[in-house]
Each structure stands twice: as structure tokens, then as C-alpha cells.
Write a structure and sequence with these properties.
By secondary structure, the protein is of the alpha/beta class. The protein is built from 18 helices and 10 strands.
Length: about 325
Amino acid sequence: MPSPSQQIMRLGFGFAVSQALRVIIELSVPDFVATGEQSVDDVAATTRSDADALYRVMRLLAAEGVFREVLPRHFELTEVGAALRSDRPGPADFVRMTNSEAYLAFEQLLYSVRTGMPAFNKVFGSSRFDWLSEHPEQAALFQRAMIALGQGSNEAVAEAYDFRPFTRIVDVGGGHGQLLSLILARNPHLSGVLFDLPSGIAAAHQGAGGDLPRTEFISGDFFESVPSGDVYVIKKVVHDWDDRRAAAILRNCRKAMPPNGRVLVAETLVPPGNEPDLIKEIDVVMLAVTGGLERTEAQYASLFDDAGLRLEQLIQTQGPISILEASPA
């Protein structure tokens, strides 16, 4: 049983694991080991790496269940590590994204705690999303990482809500459009609007999120206005922003919708208690990187009130995400 000091030291070295994951992804190590047991010397030669240094990184990740050392300096890939193969895009893109510019910003977390402001702005001189708009490669990686983060949850949201009463759905900040694609496939009576920044619309046009029939593509700023529709879906967008700006997005939906319209906010709620939960980690990352936050049901209800909306119901999906349905107050 580790002592309290040992447990604290392990927590403190969390950065070593996250950066080790990024290194083996950049070197495509999971691809080479996926074919079967491999010696570190062979993998190092293929990846043009130092064999001893690579061994130390792989040994660390073997202790975390990514590899398995089956003979001295010989490794095989575990089921966990297989998720990082390049032919299974998703988790690898997410690791690369969180361990690049977001990682650098997180070093200044103390600044965010003292000021309540995102450290990203201090480190990079602009907000996260402004910075992405000027760095197209990282913006494309961000879109791929969001697809990874949304695996399973888009299907869960599309399946959990009854869209039959509506005719025109607006996906606000819908990025690559995967969620909208799934909803339209299940609801052929709906027409759709994908509304996002140009980088998101570009990813959708390239087919990153799937087919988008009956869809109008509109670029714009949801802090200024949103297109008209009778149901708005806003998935994993509101959490990017503080209460003032989040309420502004919702208020613009309220202005554009008819009296019988609905706003559907799809987010993962922060659970009560002291149990570990990934959303609690993501919440602190949001603090440092975007200035946003993960919220409880009560916090979302308050946010709706500020925007002239009323929380009608909380719908639990089959995935780790909930739908908060709101109507005009």
C-alpha cells in the first residue's frame, strides 16, 4: 500500500505519462508494435530513436497498461494501447491536442486560479479559439480531437431526443457536423443548419463528420446572432465559456427561436461527491485553456434563467452526456 507521500508523488508525476503518450504517438510506436511482439531495438531503428531512451518511455507506459513487456526489452501492445494506433483515429488525436499548446498553457494554472482568467491567453497572447483560427493545422487537429471526444456521445444524443415536433434544426458550434449528420439520418423530415466558425465549416465540407443532406452551412459568431430554427442543439459548446458569454449564446438562440422552440444543451454534468471522474479533470483544463467550466444541473438551470429560458427536463442518454431541454421563459 503506497504511503500518502508516495501517492502524492505519483499524482505529481502525471505530466510524465501524458507526455510519454504524446511521444509514442508522434513516433507511431503503437503501429509498429501492433503486428506482434517487438524488440525496442527494432522499434527504435524504425522510428529513428535512441533505443535506451525509447525503452524507458515504453517501460513507463507498460506500467500504465499501454504496453506489456513480455521479455526483457521486448513489448507487445495491449488492448488499451491499441486505441492509439493510427488506423483508429480518435484518442491519439485527443492526446496530441491536449499535450501541445494546451499543455503549455496549463503550466500557468496558478495564474488562472488567482485571477479566474484563462492562462492560455497569457501564454499565447490571444484566446484559444482566436489562436486556432490563425493556426489551421492545429485547428484541424482540434476538430479531429473533438470527434474522438464525442465518440459514442453524438450517437447517444441523436438517439435520446424526440425531434418529430420540429422542422428546422440549428447545430450551434457544430464543428465537423457529426451530431447533425446523425440527427438528420434519423429524422428525414428535418432540414438542418450547421453554424460555426470557418474552420468548423471547412471540416464539415470535407466530410469529417459524415453526410449532411438538407443542410445549410453558415459561418458566423454565436455571440452576435444565430440562424433561425425551431430547435437548437448545442453540444459541448456552452462549457467552453464563462457564465456571461455562455448566457449570451443561449440568449441569441432565445431571440431567434419561435415561442414553441426548444434549446437542447448537451453536456456532461459534474457529479456530486468525491469520486474520481474525468469531467472534473476536464473542468480544470477548461479553467486554464478557454476560461470555461463544466457545470452541475443547478448551474445550467441558473444559466437558462439568465438567458430568458426555462429548464424543462434533464434527459439522461445512453452515453456519458446529458441533454438539458429548455424553452422560452
